[in-house]
Amino acid sequence: MTVIRLACSILVLILAQTAVSAADDMPRRKSGLWEVKMSMGGKASPMGTMQTCVDQASDDLMQSNAKRATAKNCTRSDIKRDGNRVLVHSECTLDKMKTISDAVFSGSFDSGYRGDITTQYDPPMAGHGQMQMTIEARWLGPCKTGQKAGDIVINGQTLSIGGAKGATP
Asked: How many other CB atoms are there within 10 angstroms of residue 141's CB atom?
């Protein structure tokens, strides 16, 4: 498995289990273009900086998909607000790997936020029993011309999760 593929798998797993695991309790991001930087264990992600075009429909779709994955794979998913912070704890199983994730998200979801996530794996994943990830996101403004809600640009390649058909927030 390549490093980028592993990083993508880790990202999907962590996001599905933490940031968007209970859509009703998480703050909504402002519509428009977001820049997202991740680091794992203090090192920049091999995926580099991502940009994602968001609108309410694409955010709802992402959260709905994650909520279904959480219901299927997790025995516990707790979200608690503490001032401008959102605390997340989840306990999940993917295939035969058990994960326990704790995350703290802070900031304003209309201009920028930060997420600090610690996940424990049993058995270890790729030789790691625990991984720490930091997500830093900031709103850049309206989406670029030609971008659609749900478009994610990683290393010059565009992926789309869909959203409002033809919408350009």
From this structure: 8
Which two structure tokens, joined as six digits, stand for 33?
A: 């273009």
Helical packing angle, 3-17 and 56-73, nearest 10°: 90
Written as six digits, the tokens of 136 are: 């830093």
Checking phi first, is residue 163 left (phi over 0); if not, alpha (psi -120 to 50) or beta? left
Residue 34 contacts residue 52 (beta carbons within 8 Å): yes
Tokens standing for 18?
């933490």
**pTM strictly above 0.85:** no
pLDDT at 46: 76
- Sites in the chain below the pLDDT cut of 50: 1-23, 163-169
